[in-house]
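Support reply, case 0932

Customer input (verbatim):
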Amino acid sequence: MSSIGILGAGRVGTNLAGKLAAAGHHVTLGTRSPEENGLLATGPAPRITFADQRTTARTMDIVINATPGDSSLDRLTGLRAELAGKILIDVSNATREAPDGLPGDLCYPGSSLAEKLQAALPDTHVVKTLNTMLFMVMTAPETLATPPTAYLSGDDETAKKTVTGLLGDLGWQPERIEDLGDISTARATEAMILVVPHVLRRHGFRPFAVSLAR
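Our regenerated output:
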């Protein structure tokens, strides 16, 4: 089992932490303050430890970026030394907020957050995945009537193989995992976020994923 650090303790981070801990992994949630740790420790998250984000990045073997995408690049660039040699799984989308609070324009048109992170963290293996669905689908793909797709983008094949194994622990069947290629392919899946606000405005906050049908 792996030691996995999750940067970001919102709905995405805590949801992933619970499922990965239940699968037997040692999980640390990296939060911004000790006060936040205390609040989270009272919730339904046994077997999960808490630390500041720098400690989490330094001590865990695999790190998941579940921080807000519009600030992830600055935040993680400051952890370059701590993330060196690690696998960084990026599940965030970098968008500007629309007037109604839903995702708006992309922060990096013609590129992607994942590409920016890989360029800023050359000693880290960045893998993009799970950013094309609402957070509850990340850990329960079987709950959708139509089988969803988890896309993978990354330059390092070994890192992608490791991430594929973790996706299996989250409930993803191998045939529903689509390896798109190197990290530049993340700009395609990150652009898929542009459909999300329109779906949410029409149907409300119901679980869905942007998937590949064959």
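We compared this against your earlier run and they match. Two observations from our side: The domain at 3-203 is CATH 3.40.50.720 (Rossmann fold). The chain has one domain: 3-203. Please reopen the case if you see a mismatch on your end.
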